[in-house]
């Protein structure tokens, strides 16, 4: 009788039309009423902490749903509860009211929430600004304008001040600072590195995750290009040009079922990952082939549908949980409050468009056939994307967070990230089970008490468009050079990893493959395979696991005799996609030596298709179609 917990209140919504999307948004906004303060200025959704104060956390709960509400109102829709936010604007910015948000200081979290407020004034002035009394308007513009003389982080945050000033300009406020806004925009343009991509910071930052796209930079550029077209036409056209180039890379981060590839931080924002596609429509960008409005519509709506059907994304009262596919604080950052997940409301921007817009008027189309069964080097983010054999994932080298972020080695340093299998994060520090070391080479110099994985990657590059090559240094006397080779037509479900280790100390290594759902057909823990479809397999030099999520395996391909295979049951709540996971790994021991140690690893993965339990029939045949080391790398090994 476990089925009752495997659905959501939104599962019956087909999410095909503008009315369907409106219904879903209203279903997210309505439950917030019970958590809203009497004056409307704060929304309190839970008691977990953040590095910033509680007033800012409750402001976050208030502001982030505005991305959706303002879009709905701008597109001619109505929401009965919108007065709650009008009241909140008046009381949250009133220094004499008990729900006052507090004035902004340097690098204040309140600055982040100004972006949604500014957007709402720019697109829904008649509904959210005009109803305010004169004193309320005066307080709101003074509060927003209060950030213009404050120090901000040298990151995507500068866009939040641009949006505050954009909103102030649209309501004719004297607090609008055109000089400040231009200076911020000019500086943000220095983050641009070509091919549509921007870093999340100045030169030297190698962080190009969803903040460089849907969460912040690309999304902001597109919204600005629509709202500031008359005042800043040249910059707006440049932003649209960047989006056209970027779209041809970004499409590879989504699979045919609508899932985005989890990578980087802030993934509790969930379907904000697809908001770029709605922003393309908002900005009326001329689409590059093979993208059409039907394709863009499908990319956006399939992603939202996926999240509308994830039971673990919602509490029983329909508010959003903190986590990814289920409540999980192991993968969050110290800036994730209970209101943080509502950044996903950015993906409702399509509601601002008239029903006649080609986004809504076009028939939804599937993922472009021309982009399936392909491998694509993505040079700016240092990724190689592939969907050969029906598995959508990226190989990754060269990215890392430029400041301390919880679990940054897992979020940026793993070798591969999958739309189906996600990735895992540590829940402790003393065992392999706690480490969640999927798609990583974990090393220990103390007999397995503490493990280190790749975090700070050096000299990363894509060589000849064929593979990734990089260096990493877990200790001063240990250097690891890693090659990541994508799948080929001859072995479409495998990718290769070749590691050259030079070590001045004795080491134990554990290399992980994909982590996947770890239960059998009766929801008990997977057992060793006895010829049945689901189960685990352990041998010398290889390990394999199969469940309703698909099949995954790992094999030593370099002839090294010491590597032993194991199907490791990772600790609960390590994996982002499923709370109970099993991961095939290879274990080995390495003595300190002046000679190179070579590890050649084949990694197999085939997710189950939509509506199917387990890997497609015949996958065992693919298991034996092993990849070979490219000749150029083999020459180095010799």
TrEMBL record:
Transmembrane segments: none annotated. It comes from the Eukaryota. Signal peptide: none annotated. Residues 17-367, 374-634 form the DUF2264 domain. Pfam families: DUF2264, DUF2264_C. InterPro entries: DUF2264_C (IPR049237), DUF2264_N (IPR049349), UCP014753 (IPR016624). This is DUF2264 domain-containing protein. It comes from Postia placenta MAD-698-R-SB12.
């Amino acid at each position: 009788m476990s089925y009752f917990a495997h659905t959501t209140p939104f599962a019956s919504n087909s999410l095909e039309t503008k009315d369907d999307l409106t219904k879903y948004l209203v279903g997210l906004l309505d439950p917030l009423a019970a958590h809203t303060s009497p004056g409307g200025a704060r929304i309190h959704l839970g008691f977990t902490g953040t590095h910033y104060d509680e007033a800012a956390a409750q402001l976050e709960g208030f502001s982030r749903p505005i991305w959706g509400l303002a879009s709905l109102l701008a597109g001619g829709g109505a929401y009965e509860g919108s007065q709650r936010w009008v009241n909140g604007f008046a009381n949250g910015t009133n220094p004499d009211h008990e729900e006052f948000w507090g004035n902004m200081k340097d690098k204040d979290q309140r600055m982040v929430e100004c972006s949604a407020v500014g957007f709402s004034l720019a697109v829904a002035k008649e509904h959210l600004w005009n109803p305010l009394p004169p004193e309320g308007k005066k307080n709101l513009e003074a509060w927003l304008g209060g950030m213009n003389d404050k120090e901000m982080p040298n990151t995507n945050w500068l866009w939040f001040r641009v949006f505050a000033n954009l909103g102030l300009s649209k309501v004719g406020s004297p607090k609008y600072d055109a000089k400040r806004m231009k200076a911020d925009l000019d500086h943000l343009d220095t983050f641009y590195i070509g091919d549509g991509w921007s870093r999340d910071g100045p030169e030297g930052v190698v962080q190009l995750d969803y903040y460089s796209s849907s969460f912040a930079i690309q999304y902001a550029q597109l919204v600005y290009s629509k709202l500031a077209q008359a005042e800043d036409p040249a910059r707006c056209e440049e932003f649209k040009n960047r989006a056209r180039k970027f779209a041809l890379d970004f499409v590879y981060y989504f699979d045919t079922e609508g899932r985005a590839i989890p990578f980087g931080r802030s993934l509790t924002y969930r379907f904000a990952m697809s908001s770029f596609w709605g922003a393309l429509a908002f900005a009326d960008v001329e689409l590059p082939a093979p993208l059409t409005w039907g394709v863009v519509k499908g990319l956006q709506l399939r992603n939202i549908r996926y999240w509308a059907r994830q039971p673990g994304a919602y509490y029983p009262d329909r508010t959003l949980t903190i986590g990814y596919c289920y409540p999980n604080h192991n993968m969050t950052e110290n800036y994730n409050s209970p209101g943080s997940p509502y950044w996903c409301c950015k993906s409702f921007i399509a509601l601002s468009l008239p029903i006649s817009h080609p986004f809504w008027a076009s028939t939804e189309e599937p993922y472009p056939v021309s982009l399936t069964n392909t491998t694509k080097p993505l040079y700016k983010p240092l990724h190689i994307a592939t969907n050969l054999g029906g598995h959508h994932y990226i190989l990754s080298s060269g990215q890392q967070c430029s400041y301390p972020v919880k679990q940054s080695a897992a979020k940026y340093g793993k070798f591969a990230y999958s739309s189906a299998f996600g990735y895992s994060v540590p829940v402790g520090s003393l065992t392999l089970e706690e480490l969640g070391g999927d798609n990583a080479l974990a090393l220990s110099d103390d007999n397995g008490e503490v493990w280190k994985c790749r975090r700070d990657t050096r000299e990363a590059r894509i060589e000849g468009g064929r593979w990734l090559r990089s260096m990493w240094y877990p200790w001063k006397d240990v250097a690891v050079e890693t090659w990541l080779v994508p799948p080929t037509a001859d072995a479409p479900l495998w990718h290769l990893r070749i590691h050259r280790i030079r070590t001045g100390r004795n080491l134990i290594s554990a290399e992980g493959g994909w982590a996947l759902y770890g239960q059998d057909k009766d929801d008990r823990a997977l057992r060793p395979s006895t010829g049945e479809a689901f189960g685990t397999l352990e041998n010398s030099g290889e390990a394999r696991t199969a469940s309703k999520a698909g099949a995954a395996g790992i094999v030593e391909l370099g002839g090294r005799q010491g590597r032993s295979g194991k199907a490791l049951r990772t600790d609960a709540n390590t994996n982002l996609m499923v709370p109970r996971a099993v991961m095939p790994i290879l274990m080995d021991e390495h003595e300190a030596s002046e000679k190179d140690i070579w590890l050649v690893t084949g990694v197999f993965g085939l997710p189950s298709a939509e509506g199917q339990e387990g890997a497609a029939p015949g996958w065992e045949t693919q298991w034996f179609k092993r990849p070979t080391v490219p000749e150029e790398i083999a020459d180095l090994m010799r």
